[in-house]
Specification:
Strand order of the largest sheet: 3-2-1-4-5-6
Number of helices: 19
Largest sheet: 6 strands, parallel
Strand content: 5-15%
Radius of gyration: 21 Å
Helix content: 40-55%
Shape: globular
Length: 419
């Protein structure tokens, strides 16, 4: 079979799709994988050994988008109108380019498999060609009575369902003009129904690519069209070991890991100073992963003068996190999965999107705590690290690790469903 896999977003959005694509290729299928231009090199490196995977450019440069004024300012505005307008602009960002690219990619395919972003255009394309439709969800996105729309706020089940219904309605209103224009161009009739309704009627499958244990009761509310498989990842591909990092790890106690992935840190110098001051007072070492932020170049003199701080561009989470005392990160689904598998208690300093869901989930089971990144101060960071380095937090994180499906098992289950 030929699977077309258009994936948009950050590295954390693309990686689960790559893991599934490689598995499908290993099973003898042909895969056309669409990745943002800024992640093309990453995607090709991770699929280099899979001759049946073809990586093509899909959509806009997502690193530029995350660093734009739309994401940094307007989408976080306290003015509801400004924020809603920004969300609508984000939903439609690059739409025309992606629909054109997807039409080329999808020729002669049997199924379209996509991520959490851009599902609407992928579904319309699948429906027009009579293809199967599969979406990977990295957190709860559909109405239910278990997970509150506002993370951490306990509400009755009927209120949760009503809030999710409202969120789905608002999403549909922001997308319907673009969607119906695409549908007409594909020879489909315009629709008045949101994607969740259409996908369910069509027989589309929304694979929940995360652990159901983090959201108790959710799996029971959703049927076979929303199956849980666990966190997806590229278990067979590792980053080459950094000799300097290895020497540093062996030279002292287990460090606290700091990493904010694709989230641009507004003031890297101030963040490094905060990390240095707090870890110094607590008497712990700090391993700082720069990600897409210029942390490595923020204050090199200060970092070099402090042997208790190590700054690296990237790390292999699977091999490094089990050697850490705790983790402080942005709460992306991929990084949350890595800390959960490693049994490391976590302080989530979230920015937006699904990140507060993960912070609330870890806090609920006692394996972590959570704060908004913009509210991060030295006192907040110090208290957070103190909270997650207790025996109780470590035990809860270890219990969570015991429930997490192995990477290979989760990927295999997702491929079984997709086939």
């Amino acid at each position: 079979m030929k699977f077309v896999m258009p994936f948009n977003g950050s590295r954390g959005d693309v990686t689960p799709g790559l893991a599934l694509g490689v598995e499908l290729a290993d099973r003898g299928h042909d895969v056309v994988f669409g990745a943002p231009p800024n992640l093309m090199e990453f995607a090709r490196a991770k699929t280099a050994e899979s001759e049946r995977v073809s990586v093509v450019s899909f959509g806009p440069d997502t690193q530029r988008l995350l660093e734009s004024e739309l994401i940094r300012v307007r989408i976080k505005s306290r003015n509801p109108r400004t924020r809603m307008a920004a969300l609508a602009e984000l939903a439609n960002h690059g739409w025309d380019r992606m629909t054109t690219e997807l039409e080329r990619m999808a020729q002669g395919c049997d199924a379209i498999v996509t991520g959490s972003l851009g599902q609407e255009m992928a579904f319309n394309m699948a429906e027009s060609a009579g293809n199967a439709f599969v979406a990977l969800h990295y957190c709860p996105l559909r109405r239910n009575g278990v997970v509150p729309v506002t993370p951490g706020v306990a509400l009755p089940g009927y209120v949760n369902r009503s809030m999710w219904a409202l969120a789905e309605s608002m999403r549909w209103k922001s997308m319907k003009a673009r969607e119906n224009a695409q549908r007409v161009s594909l020879g489909l009739a315009p629709t008045r129904n949101s994607l969740p309704v259409r996908s369910e009627r069509y027989g589309g499958v929304e694979i929940q690519a995360y652990e159901s244990a983090l959201f108790p009761g959710l799996a029971e509310q959703w049927g076979p069209q929303r199956p849980f498989v666990g966190f997806l990842g590229l278990s067979s591909v590792r980053v080459d070991a950094d000799p300097a990092l290895e020497r540093w790890l062996q030279a002292g106690s287990a460090p606290v890991y700091f990493g904010f992935g694709s989230m641009p840190v507004p003031d890297p110098t101030a963040l490094l100073r905060m990390i240095e001051n707090v870890t110094g007072r607590l008497g712990v070492r700090a391993l700082v992963c720069a990600g897409w932020s210029d942390l490595a170049g923020a204050d090199p003199a200060a970092a070099q003068s402090n042997s208790n701080i190590m700054i690296v561009e990237s790390v292999d989470h699977a091999s490094i996190l089990p050697r850490c005392l705790a983790a402080v990160h942005h709460g992306g689904a991929g990084t949350t999965a890595a800390t959960a598998r490693a049994g490391v208690p976590t302080l989530v300093c979230w920015f937006s999107a699904d990140q507060p869901f993960w912070g609330a989930a870890l806090r609920r089971i006692g394996a972590g705590t959570s704060t908004k990144f913009s509210a991060l101060t030295e006192s907040v960071l110090q208290q957070g690290i103190s909270d997650i380095t207790t025996d109780r937090a470590r035990q809860a994180a270890r219990r969570l690790a015991d429930t997490v499906a192995p990477t290979a098992t989760a990927v295999s289950a997702a491929a079984d469903i997709t086939e």
